[in-house]
Specification:
With 306 residues, this protein is of the alpha/beta class. The protein has helices at residues 2-33, 93-100, 123-129, 144-149, 157-166, 170-174, 193-207, 223-237, 272-278, 281-305; strands at residues 54-61, 70-77, 82-86, 108-113, 116-117, 130-133, 211-215, 241-245, 257-262, 265-270. It has ten helices and ten strands. The chain binds adenosine-5'-triphosphate. The chain crosses the membrane at residues 1-15.
Length: 306
């Protein structure tokens, strides 16, 4: 029996390794799934980035032909400015960010960066100039330093740490058992949603792209985490053309323009103050969210006094 138990243990070990390998592959496919048959046009040229101005002109898009998601959307993100997209769940906000990154091709209209249609340039050159902080960051099964350095593999240790500090995750990393060498991901330390998002922000700080897409996490974060992430994002988006996909409204107050999307069309647009005074969809979303936040705060106070 002794003789048998060793190989069985070994088989168990191999089995676990293979299973882990499969989860990694599944994750990879999850990532690839959002990228179907978009291919470079024959003779596609490199995107020539100047100031990094984005223009959506009469954009029509549907994932499947029966159901239009965007029905003629037009807006500009002038170079260095921040535009936020808000609206009810399912309105098509994240779709807009996927289209700018060209995960899908549109069925009508155009999307340009510095006057160049995203369909006319190579995907590599397009994605090189865009930094994406996604809703849900997938971490590699490697050290936290590796995960941050991924934004620019040539970055030095000091640069990695500086990026982590700006992203408000540096202090947290120092408390980990092996600091920057701590293994994270499925096989290592599991980070919370807010921590993962700050790793993604640190990565983006190292990449230093002229254009930034911030797809906010849908899930509610606690107020402190939200403030930390917000101040990290303010630093990265400063003087960069930034498109914010906002699932919460607290982050959009300072945007140069807020676009309110509903059923695939632009229902309202303007600054935070403009939209509040219009007393329409944005104002009602804002009031609802404020009430919800106040209720949460009150609940927390009651719990603390218990
Ligand atoms: P939320 O705030 O809930 O994240 P959203 O405004 O970002 O919503 P999108 O993710 O852009 O919404 O989705 C818009 C619509 O498109 C939704 O009805 C969604 O079900 C649909 N959709 C999203 N991705 C796909 C896909 N890959 N295939 C088919 N339909 C999709």
């Amino acid at each position: 029996l002794m003789q048998l138990s060793v190989p069985l243990n070994f088989i168990g070990f191999v089995y676990r390794e293979i299973r882990q390998g499969l989860t990694d592959i599944e994750q990879m496919f999850d990532l690839l799934e959002v990228e179907p048959e978009v291919v470079d046009r024959a003779g596609a040229t490199e995107l020539q980035i100047r100031q990094g101005a984005i223009a959506f002109k009469d954009v029509h898009f549907a994932y499947d032909p029966e159901r239009a998601i965007l029905k003629g959307i037009s807006f500009d993100v002038p170079a260095g400015k921040t535009v936020a997209i808000v609206g009810p769940s399912g309105a098509g906000k994240s779709t807009i960010s996927r289209l700018l990154y060209r995960f899908y091709d549109i069925q009508g209209g155009s999307i340009t960066i510095d006057g160049q249609d995203v369909r006319e340039v190579t995907q590599t050159s397009l994605r090189k100039v865009i930094g994406m902080v996604p809703q849900d960051t997938v971490l590699f099964n490697d050290t936290i330093a590796y995960n941050i350095r991924y934004g620019r593999p040539s970055a030095t240790e000091e640069e990695v740490q500086a990026a982590a500090d700006i992203a408000q995750i540096g202090t947290f990393i120092q408390t980990l058992p092996d600091g920057y060498e701590t293994k994270v991901g499925e096989r290592g330390l599991k980070l919370s949603g807010g921590e993962k998002q700050r790793v993604a922000i640190a990565r983006t700080i190292l990449k230093a792209p002229p254009i930034l897409i911030l797809d906010e996490a849908t899930s509610a974060l606690d107020t402190t985490t939200e403030h930390e992430i917000q101040s990290a994002l303010d630093v990265v988006s400063k003087n960069r053309t930034t498109l914010v996909i906002a699932h919460r409204l607290s982050t959009v107050i300072n945007a140069d323009e807020i676009i309110v999307l509903r059923h695939g069309t632009i229902a309202e647009r303007g600054s935070h103050a403009d939209l509040l005074s219009q007393n329409g969809l944005y104002a009602s979303m804002w009031n609802r969210q404020r009430e919800a936040t106040q209720a949460e705060e009150q609940l927390r106070k009651v719990r603390e006094n218990d």
